[in-house]
Amino acid sequence: MPTLAGLSAALLYVLASLLLARQLVRHETPHTARILGLGALALPLHLVSLQAAIYAGGGLDLSLFNMVSLVGWLIATLSIAMSLYQPVVSLTLGAFPLATLGILLSLFARDTYTPLHGLSPGVQSHILLSILAYSVLTFAAGHAVLLAVQDRHLRQHRRGFLQTLPPLVTMERLLFDLIAIGFVLLSVAIVTGFLTLEDFFAQHLAHKTAFTLAAWAVFAVLLGGRHWLGWRGATAIRFTLWGFALLLLGFYGSKAVLELVLHTPA
Questions:
Q1: 41 and 142 share a domain?
Q2: Which domain holds residue 148?
Q3: What DSSP line would sit under 79-142, residue for residue?
Q4: For the whole model, what pTM was predicted?
Q5: How high is the pLDDT of residue 151?
Q6: Are 89 and 127 contained in the same domain?
Q7: What is the pLDDT of residues 10-54, one digit of tens each?
Q8: Same-domain pairing of 2 and 79
């Protein structure tokens, strides 16, 4: 049942992505209701598959591939939610394929991760907040890339799928809203991590902590620059992508090395 649910969700994501891609290539106005409808049908099926994978064996399986699937689900959910009140359905063209990749990796890729047992509520809260923060900031990075493309096309007086997006000012405001939400979640996750993790060196978390703190500092500088210096445009995009790159190295990079190369739970 979980495998069938996961494959059905992947198929729905793919159909929605192909429909949107075809319409963008033809410079047509996207059929938002159809695309979001397919994505909305995929979300609960994806969740069924995800729940079975993460809670397999009586423990908490937070392996790299399950985390990719979980973050993909969260980003797909965010993209649908944002598209309901702003014409940014184009964002699903990145979110849905990521969710599809996560499902396929979670279902068919194998690693040596050992499920965790007996986690305290504090540690579980830290894990949940960390995943939420990574998801929101990953979505912000994708939004920043789209904003950069939009800005470049406007400067070159090109149209295409730009006609489906809100004005540049609105896109920038959405970007900083996402960064602010992700920054708050990341801040709380860092605090709960220091309060609940007894020895992050023994738990192979030193490198992850260092990259996360560096990313936190980048986003803090960006938000401060926005508030006091009015930073926007290319500066905001660069800082967003730098911060995301640090998170990518700290979260996915460290898990990949520890689980797939060193065969150590991360």
A1: no
A2: 119-266
A3: HHHHHHHSS-GGGHHHHHHHHHHHHHHHHH----PPPB-S--HHHHHHHHHHHHHHHHHHHHHH
A4: 0.83
A5: 81
A6: no
A7: 999 999 999 998 888 887 778 889 999 999 999 999 999 998 888
A8: yes
